[in-house]
Design a protein that fits this description.
Elements (H helix, E strand, L loop, with lengths): L7 H21 L6 E9 L5 E9 L7 E8 L12 E4 L5 E6 L2 E5 L6 E4 L2 E2 L2 E6 L1
Parallel strand pairs: 6-9
Antiparallel strand pairs: 1-2, 2-3, 3-4, 4-7, 5-6, 8-9
Length: about 130
Amino acid sequence: MNARHPGGVTRRYAFASCFLLVLGLAACSDEDMCGNEIVTSVASPSGILRAVVFTRDCGATTGYSTQLSILPAAEALPRDGGNTLILDDQIPLTVRWISDTELLVKGIGSAKVFRREQSVAGVQVRVEP
């Protein structure tokens, strides 16, 4: 124990522990609070890939979004956001594989776009209203 400041070392350890706990919780971020619900999953013609349309809800302070990911067929939908298309609100998208290297997405309308990739995993993504 520190003679000049009894309990000072203990207080410092307690403060450091609390600080690390808060830092650890912040590192978890709001990604863990988000939930994905699959709307549709469509396999590519070869069955190697799939296009997954899903809605994402990150809690009361944010609205829903409609998202699209192109994934290997055997891979589960990750807990994070879409890797291909992210739209504000719940939008009734339709997806159709033209070939193993081209995906057609319809129904975007005038939705606000947060992310729109032209190509993912070697697949050209064509978006039509």
